[in-house]
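dumping this here before i forget
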Amino acid sequence: MAPQAEEIAVSFVHPKGRVDIPVSALDRVQAYPTVRFRNSETGAVREFPDPHVEICAAKEFRDRICELTKNVVGEATAIVVDCRTVSKPIVREPLCTKPRFNISANDLAEADALAQSIRRGSNRACAPSF
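structure:
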């Protein structure tokens, strides 16, 4: 019996490069209904509605995402989960400074479902059409 390929949790796909993050490289995947901001002057914390999935991956994959996004600033990059493009954001700056990234959702139910799909992974590596 041939060994099965490792499950892919999420992929960053662009014509200039691709980063497939395996399930085993995930440190945390969590759905959140809001985002919190701390006022640097007053220290006050405010919450705003912003359903999203927060993903923390191993440093090796964060470094690869950083390199890819350095090369595609100003361009769209597909975020693919289970062969489905779940987001196609314009890269405004390289994703190099934080140990996590977020994928927006319409509501908490969608964020929860997306988080479950990412944790489960897929043995398919798919490319979106650009």
